[in-house]
Amino acid sequence: IAGITQAPTSQILAAGRRMTLRCTQDMRHNAMYWYRQDLGLGLRLIHYSNTAGTTGKGEVPDGYSVSRANTDDFPLTLASAVPSQTSVYFCASSDSTGTYNEQFFGPGTRLTVL
Amino acid sequence: GQNIDQPTEMTATEGAIVQINCTYQTSGFNGLFWYQQHAGEAPTFLSYNVLDGLEEKGRFSSFLSRSKGYSYLLLKELQMKDSASYLCAVMDSNYQLIWGAGTKLIIKP
Known about the structure:
The structure holds two protein chains of two kinds.
Chain A: E1 4-7, E2 10-13, E3 19-25, E4 31-37, E5 44-49, E6 56-57, E7 64-66, E8 76-78, E9 87-94, E10 104-105, E11 109-113
Parallel strand pairs in A: 2-11
Antiparallel strand pairs in A: 1-3, 3-8, 4-5, 4-9, 5-6, 7-8, 9-10, 9-11
Chain B: E1 3-5, E2 9-13, E3 18-25, E4 32-37, E5 44-49, E6 53-57, E7 60-65, E8 70-75, E9 84-91, E10 97-99, E11 103-108
Parallel strand pairs in B: 2-11
Antiparallel strand pairs in B: 1-3, 3-8, 4-5, 4-9, 6-7, 7-8, 9-10, 9-11
C-alpha cells in the first residue's frame, strides 16, 4: 500500500441499505477526512478525525457515521442510504491539523443510491 | 456564511498563460490552498499561501491578497496535460478547509 486506498471503487446501492466505505492510509498521518464531491459544488466535509480515537462533524454529517479505532483506518458508514447520498466520496489525510495542512486524497468511491 | 468563488470554466491555448481567480469570504483565515484535479481522479496539492504576495513553483505561481479576500493561480507555458479542474480552498478559523466548486480549464492546441 502506498498513500491512501479506498474501497470499493464504485457501488450501486438500493435505498435503505447500509453501506460502509473503507479508507486506509499508510503514511502514519494523524488527521483523516471524508468529503463528498457533487457536480457544481465544492468538496464538502462530512466527518473528520484529528487523531486516533477522536472524530468530529463536518459541514454535512447527517446520515453518516465514522470511527477511528487506529491511525490507519477511517471507515464511513451510511446507516440507511438515500438517493441524495449519490456522490463521489473522497477520503483524505494530513500530517498536521494546523495552518499548513496539505491533504492527500484517496482515489475516491463513486456511490449511486437508487 | 462562508463562500469561495471561482469561474466555472476557462479556455486557453497550449503554450499560453492563464490566470484563475478565487475570491473568498470565510470566518477566519489560516491559509489558502490550490489543488489540481484531473477528470475522474483525486485532487492533488499545488500551492499554499498564508502571507500576501506571490509564491512561485516552476510553471505555476499563486498570489494572495488577504485584505481583498483574493487569490489567483497563474499557469505559464500551458501544456495539454494541464487540462484539469483547479480547486481553491481556504482554511477557516476552525482549521477546516472550505472549498470552491473548481474551475475547469480546457487547453486547446
